[in-house]
């Protein structure tokens, strides 16, 4: 963890604003704007890019992926610039929680993979790039988005040590645990061999 320099009231404000930014459900907004229906009633019901892809609209899925990643990264960068490194990590956690449990959707959000990667890229771009590469390699080999996500999260701790970013260990540990919790149903399907592959129409 970085040294805590900012006051509690300042960190609280940072957390609240980052949470609200993270809560913006871009997948739902984009699919509605394009007339693709309510994303929560399509495919797996998840609000992330993988489920948007099941609508058949690749551009919408890509936009969702980029925007979900960007909201985590932007929250971190603004907090770092305005306050400092301690606030940046608080913002990253708060934005991630916002995506997982958005107030706008009655706290029923996504699984956080894109936001997780965006946060890593903003905090330490080398770690984020390595995690993105891990996801991409796993996705190409197995063509299962959830497996790629779980591998990217699991390997992120290793990349922290490779790139000497131990100050992020506590945060990344918490984010990784949350990713695994949110993917619990996927883990069960992976064990059963029933997890759908990327591009499949149904969950």
Question: Could you outline the blueprint of secondary structure elements for this entry?
Answer:
Blueprint: H1 8-22, H2 26-33, H3 49-53, H4 58-82, H5 85-100, H6 113-123, H7 125-142, H8 145-162, H9 169-182, H10 184-192
Feature tags:
0% strand; 10 helices; globular; 203 residues
If you had to describe this structure to a student in words, what would you say it looks like?
With 203 residues, the protein is mainly alpha-helical. The chain has one domain. 68% of the residues lie in helices and 0% in strands. The protein has ten helices and no strands. Helix 1 packs antiparallel against helix 4 and helix 4 runs parallel beside helix 6. The model has no long low-confidence stretch (mean pLDDT 94).
Summarize the structure.
With 203 residues, the chain is mostly helical. It has helices at 8-22, 26-33, 49-53, 58-82, 85-100, 113-123, 125-142, 145-162, 169-182, 184-192.
